[in-house]
Amino acid sequence: MSIKHCKRIFILLLTVLFSGCAVYAGFNFDQQFGRAEPQQRIAPANTLQANNYLTEVKPIIENRCVVCHACYDAPCQLKLSSAEGIDRGSNKEKVYEGTRLIAANTTRMFIDAQSTAQWRDKGFNAVLNEREQSPEANTQAGVMARMLQLKQAHPLPEQTVLTADEWDFSLDRNQQCPTIEEMAQYEHDYPQWGMPYGLPKISDADNKVLMDWLSAGSPMAAVAPPSLSTQAKVSKWEKFLNGDSFKQQLVSRYIYEHLFVAHLYFSDEETPVFFNLVRSRTAPGKPIDIIATRRPFDDPGVERVYYRFQQVRETIVDKTHMPYALNPTKMARIETLFFKPSYTVAALPGYEPELAANPMEAFRQLPVDSRYRFMIDNAQNTIMGFIKGPVCRGQLALNVINDRFWVFFVDPAMADTPRVDAFYQDQAKNLRMPAEHESNTLPLTHWMSYAKQQGRFLRAKNAFMADTFKNGEHLTTDLVWDGDGYNDNATLTVLRHFDSATVTKGLVGKPPKTAWILDYSLLERIHYLLVAGFDVYGNFGHQLVTRMYMDFLRMEGESNFLSLLPSSTRRSELADWYLGADQHLTQFLQGDINAFDQPTGIQFTTGHPKQELFEMLEQKLKPVNSTRYDYRQAELGNNAINALNNIDQLKGRQATLFPELSYIMVMPSNPASAPQLFTLVRNSAHKNISSLFSEEANRLYDQDNVTLVKGILGSYPGAFWLVDEGDLPALAREIKMVYTEADYTKFMDRYAVRRTDPDFWSFSDKLNQLYQQNFPIEAGLLDYNRLENR
């Protein structure tokens, strides 16, 4: 018998042995505590059990568990951000699986199943005991209880940095996700891996609260219903969104498809409650019967759709939180945009994928100006949709954008003409979107098709522009929207953090390498590509074509910006942005991007026109440019501000040594002042961002730099620093001496609160508390899945 054959038999025997152990363990639990079945765990409101959960248990779960277990990237799909999520449990399948050939089944909380029993049918395993409800069974036959006990028995080793061969903190690590039947083997193989994983154990007092709660059967409480005042506002808005006329139904469909990922709230409420806008089979006044489709424009399967407000039942976490304010002013604005103009909706569009995935076709009966103004009125939320919307992370999707760039918008007044409306209608076929192929796509064939249609559109657009400016007129900064003098959504900054990103109001940091100027069609297509039409459960082809299509849209936005520069410098600037681009992209760049060759109407006076243009735009938009993130406005002394300025100058390979996001808490010299928070953002430079799988090969480490901002920016901290104001000058000097990994370790030894620090949880609590106090509407719990171990 060959050695290879012996190995196969050995592996087979091991598989049978361990599967047999799991079966035996399950049988043993059944013998001891009875067969498992979902339990009723929601305690009646106003009972002692419900109050104990809300006031004692839930805060611990949020601040110690939800910080790693929320959204699609929660380890083992274990979402602990709601009572329903805790009861649902875990699943061994990964949502983020970039190689799957067939789209996966969706597992969205509160959408794809409505009960724990339904989640069991979908392959989710309990983390709470579902057998006999006795203290012994609840603590011995529940994964969550066993994980907490394992951590208490085996706290973190006394190491500043945990050894890499024993701990894996990579996002794509091999997750064990043990069921209760597999728990004994897990405890034997990974005794250090109790929960919280790779972080200090929770305090004895907190552990007792959780263990007492688990021992008692884990009674939980439903989310408290909104106040009568809030319910009245919900009723008013649901009535507004569910009118019977074709115009009302089409407008509401448009609003829904743009706000379905937002957290809606009423800004005139003292304590806001957040809602999701959902499609329901039932009309207002009746319980919501949610229509669970992959995309917001998929066929609902009913004759009439109703748009309803479903209360958010999960803990608010920063990485998915997109607050959107509703009030009488907003309702009046929608009336002005969509109902005061004179136009007719003759018939409602269908939901065929070819039509519904293309907003230029589906909503062609609505005025372009109304659609565009609706999106840019809250442009940060619109752009945030593709930053936070259907994904929590996605390097394949986000390596299509630079690490930091500014975003501007075409003035809607320049596009509010019948000629523009007619142009978009004429080009609708060239503006088709990948989601028309739904979630299973063949990448190469479809990408070539979309490349050709984008080329046709750009040539038509350039011809349209040339005809528009044929009488000696030229583009100037008048092209750029000024926010109508009051709207601070007119200037945005997008910052990428490898596989996550942030969009902020204002022109943050020094002038960037690139910028976008977005017009209506571009903004609309970005939304339908990356938000409404993107499926995180889709197959490899769907995700790949989506990413490749975004190349075209990014370059179109960049081309709009370049059209304001002297025509003689546009090509050289573009070439600098796309060093080493592949042959197909180079041909596309040379043939279709920036073929608009009309001279700019701007008079440049230096040899650095891009810098001049940025300065002009900054000056023009100064009245609406948010300065929220300006570290120079921190409540610190001059010496500290000067030190912060020195930190902001870090660049090159020194900057490369720092993580994507470092959160800094500065304790002021004045004891009466609150701690000041800052974020040090690392910006990674690239030759180009057009390559799909060779990002490392495209890196330009010598051109890396940092952006220091006041406050919290981003959702995924990589490192925590704690420093007294008086020590900031010393920190600024020492950071300039960090050239190697050893230097970085020495620096962190002095200033970091590492994941192994005994004071980690008290620091974490203070950080989240300050964030919530400073920005009660915007703030959500931060996520610790990217905390470094260095």
From TrEMBL:
Superkingdom of the source?
A: Bacteria
The yes or no answer to whether the keyword Chaperone is present is no
InterPro entries reported in the protein's UniProt record: Fatty_acid_cis-trans_isomerase
Task: Write down what this protein is called.
Answer: 9-hexadecenoic acid cis-trans isomerase
What residue stretch is flagged as signal peptide?
1-24
Q: Which GO terms describe its molecular function?
A: isomerase activity
Give the keywords, sorted: Isomerase, Signal
